[in-house]
Amino acid sequence: MAEQHTPGHTLHPEPGSVAEVMMFKKLQERFPLQYEHVFPDKLAPRTVVIIPSLTMDPGILSKISGINHYEERLLCMLMLLRMPRTNVIYVTSETIDPVIIDYYLHMLPGITGYHALRRLTLLSCHDSSSKPLTQKILERPRLMQRIKDFIPPDHEAHMSCFNVTDFERTLAVQLQLPVYGCDPDLYELGSKSNGRRLFRECGLDVPAGYEDLHTEEDIIKGLVQLKMNNPDLIRAVVKVNDGFSGDGNAVFSYKDWDENTDLEDWIRGTIVANLKRVAEDLSYEQFLEKYNSMGGIVEEFMEGEHKESPSVQCRVTPMGECEVISTHDQELGGESGQVYLGAQFPASNEYAVELGRLGRKVAEALQNKGVLGRFAVDFISVKQEDGEWKHFPIEINLRKGGTTHPFLMLQFLTDGIYNEEEGRYYTSQGHLVRYYFCSDNLKSEKYKGLSPHDLIDIAMVNDLHYDGTSQEGVMFHLIGALSQFGKLGVVCIGSSPQRAREFYARIVTVLEKEC
Question: What global pTM score does this model have?
């Protein structure tokens, strides 16, 4: 069967068919014209359909507490409503509390909440299951029709997604909207294995390791070879090709190996106990099942007395321009230091410019392969004995990520830009430099039971908000996860890195007191 029916007798190509792929490519071909003429014009009539679906492996995502509420992270894009002829359609799995929407709209510069609300459409699948949001939308043809109906006939429109997979391609074709994101045919370029290959093509210092592995035997052989090549190696990291926030990673320790024992026999006998999974409650058998199906890598765990985990955010525009849009020093936690907790923006001035240069190399290589949209390149940076930093690329996130929404919020609120040549961010006033500290993982058992209404009340009473006059302050996100999971996200903007951290410390102090 080549076509399928939906209510209203609309015919669509079969998902995954050649016809669908060709139709998607035609939609994407018209997007540069929209980008060139509509994007720069703040008064142009347009509609942005935001699909914040984390379309990734459900088994890994299910290990992240409050994962459905991660759909709220792109609420920063409600700031698009500051343009008075722009409409936003925002689709989620579950209904978002109106107090959260009001919180974002209150921050809109130069636009009343009433004016913005008239141009905002919130749609929900009313489905809390672990399936990706985009899959839920595709299972609801009437919901898709409502999305179409809410796009005014004189508006140019496009979809903005967290990541773009076969599901998002099908949705784009059925809605007849281009996507500002990477063609899913290129999605595998962002896998851990392909990332290592691309880094080598760019001439970067790739950690020792092996890619395109699938079986337990592959992992064992890789671990053996790494240790034989580097007898001083203490740990190795094993990663599935398509993990998220470190939850597809596991760390293997060699520290208990007795050199009088055969290395391969020892690894084979201890791998179940010694391979520590980052994801909570992910058994060895489950991890191996993911590894078998997705493939993965084994590589050296980079050690160092002075070590950082920076990232570079890049974008390839529909006009084929490569841009370095931000740098961050990520904060990683968990027992093995593999879980993304938060980030400082921009990255350290000791290496931000150099980091941007390396990120641009990767961006240009991806652009040459046809990649479109935002993505990030993660590094491990180790300070050498001579004081210089050495940067090891470890993965490409060919999608939006944990550093996307904080930077977008900063950009929307200050109308500024990251200066790649200086490694600094300037607001629209030109001379003002801004920094932030952000986290998706501010959590405590004490916070459970706090509703969005409670949080907003606490924030207002304690003067925890963003001040547009000073262009400093605090914004909350992941607010919907607070009551059930005791977890929320924050972005703290300051005139210095220290001031941004002070805002964060104040939030923690206030919440501790209030709880």
Answer: 0.90
